[in-house]
Amino acid sequence: MPNFAILPYRLSANLNLDNFTSNVLQTATMLPRLRGLASQIATQTRLFSQTPTTPAKNLPPRLKINDADLTISYLKGTGPGGQKINKTNSACQISHKPSGVVIKCQATRSRAQNEKIARSLLADRVEALLKGDQSRVAIKAEAARKKKASKLKKTRRKYRELEGKEGDADGNGKVMVEEEIPEGEGEVGVQGKEEKEVEVETRIVEESKRSGKGV
Amino acid sequence: MPRIPFSMILKAHQENHLLPLLLKECRTIDSARNELRWLREQAVRDSKSLSRSRSGWRTRLRSMCQLRSRGYPLQYILGDQPFGDLEILCKKGVLIPRPETESYTYQAAKLVRQMALDSSDKSRPPSNARPLRVIDLCTGTGCIPLLLHALLAPHFQKLSITGIDISPLALSLAQKNLEHNLQLGQLTSRASTDIHFHRGNVLGNGSDDSILSIDSILQPYYLESGSSLADQTGGCDLLISNPPYISQSEFGNGTTARSVRLFEPKMALVPPSLVTGDEHGRPEDIFYHRILALALKLRAKITVLECGDIVQAKRVVALSETLASMESGQFSAEVWPSCERDLLENGFHATDGSRGVIIRRLP
């Protein structure tokens, strides 16, 4: 899939390559996250990759389920089958005898596909039953939760920063802070949290100032 | 057909205003919900691919649902039907592949592999032998030959699969399906040389009309009754067919669903009533007479036939036994699936519905 967002940069790279790459290298050294990519960036044309370089931790292997424990059945239509009717439902139901888990899948029109999906769902469910927090599903859910939390934190941080900048520009900053304080009043916990956030904010402002100088 | 309770229609309408339309054909909320999902996916996909479409996907979805409420088959609206891992294109005028046929095909592939394993244990290495030969009569969309190729190609170095149908529309669709699945990567590139589709009339005698009779197409595979080296040049390993098998009365009396009766080709469902067909017994069984005779001529090692119900399947078993008694050689004929486990695992109705007949030539 061609990434269209990259296209204008490519064009500019063709037009003014030297200036462009040096600029990029500078910005890259400023941003600690991209520093590891600096050498790659110099050679490749796909520049602004946001993918994290550290690979995720390996998940525990999928649970292998013995076929002998499974009973797979397809939903039988009522009435005659074959040419006389035209069934569109091809639901697949798998039950796992030892644990008593039953999974029914009718996500797709294909029997084979439904069976595959049901099998993997069943494996996940049985594993969750057996291992609890140590199962693949639980680990994945935990990772997703963490990612979401950090993303939320980042957006919050970003908008705080933006608000702060606006305040610097037209002097509204004080008013906004004043507005914020009464909301936070009364609850000690919230105030404490706010202090922490402010700390983080100042550090970031400094960083952005530095990078601003660089560019 | 029992009427749908008003409460169910109300409930469906509360969920989605298009559901009651689909309920007319689907009869249960569950399957209506599924069909709506598939139709919606298709409508959105259509509107994306036709970038300057005049109307949005919602309009398209509504017209799709209206078509469906009149009984127009879902597969004709969506344009395809999954068959095993393949995607079979469907077009009005050609019978839609059924899940039961899928089960027979899987079973046939299993039996062929078993047979090959058994024979290679005893004698010659399989490499230098002639290709495994499969003939599918009344092939329609070509679903059986294509799925058999997908299932057998990893196990046999040489394969030759022939699909025969009378309808030129079906043959062009079968060819298209071959190319479509090659493109999808579901078939290996050998498939285009291993699979051939021919136009032929299974019931014809060859003399009277422009369509080739089955005899002239299969002539190279016939064996003289005296030849002892049965597996040198001719012969056939698997003869499989899902011929028209619905009787005139069952087509009209409500046993055949409205959607099938109104929109699928009658030619693929009800065998033609031949004037001279009196000696063959029931008119809906004429294809089986012809195919079983062919199976003997071709010395088919395995014959798999789809039948309408268990009564018809038993008739076909009896028929094959009387035909076989006149021939040399031993045969076993059975109805499949017959045990409860097979029925359940392949989605067959316990008492009603389609059954297959498997005839094996015993060595």
UniProtKB/TrEMBL annotation, chain A:
Signal peptide: none
Location of the region described as Disordered in the Swiss-Prot/TrEMBL record: 148-215
Domain of life: Eukaryota
Biological processes annotated in GO: mitochondrial translation
GO MF annotations in UniProt: translation release factor activity
Residue span, Prokaryotic-type class I peptide chain release factors domain: 63-160
SUPFAM superfamilies xrefs: Release factor (SSF75620)
PANTHER family: MITOCHONDRIAL TRANSLATION RELEASE FACTOR IN RESCUE, PROBABLE PEPTIDE CHAIN RELEASE FACTOR C12ORF65
Keywords linked to the UniProt accession: Mitochondrion, Transit peptide
Name of the protein this chain belongs to: Prokaryotic-type class I peptide chain release factors domain-containing protein
Biological classification of the source: Eukaryota, Fungi, Dikarya, Ascomycota, Pezizomycotina
Protein family per UniProt: Belongs to the prokaryotic/mitochondrial release factor family.
Pfam family, one: RF-1
Basic and acidic residues bias (residue ranges): 192-215
Biased composition (Basic residues): 148-159
One cellular-component annotation, GO: mitochondrion
Subcellular location field: Mitochondrion
Xref: InterPro entries: Mito_Transl_Release_Factor (IPR052405), Pep_chain_release_fac_I (IPR000352), Pep_chain_release_fac_I_sf (IPR045853)
UniProtKB/TrEMBL annotation, chain B:
GO BP terms: methylation
Molecular function in Gene Ontology: methyltransferase activity; nucleic acid binding
InterPro entries per UniProt: DNA_methylase_N6_adenine_CS, N5-glutamine_MTase, SAM-dependent_MTases_sf
One cellular-component annotation, GO: mitochondrion
Domain of life: Eukaryota
Protein name in UniProt: Methyltransferase domain-containing protein
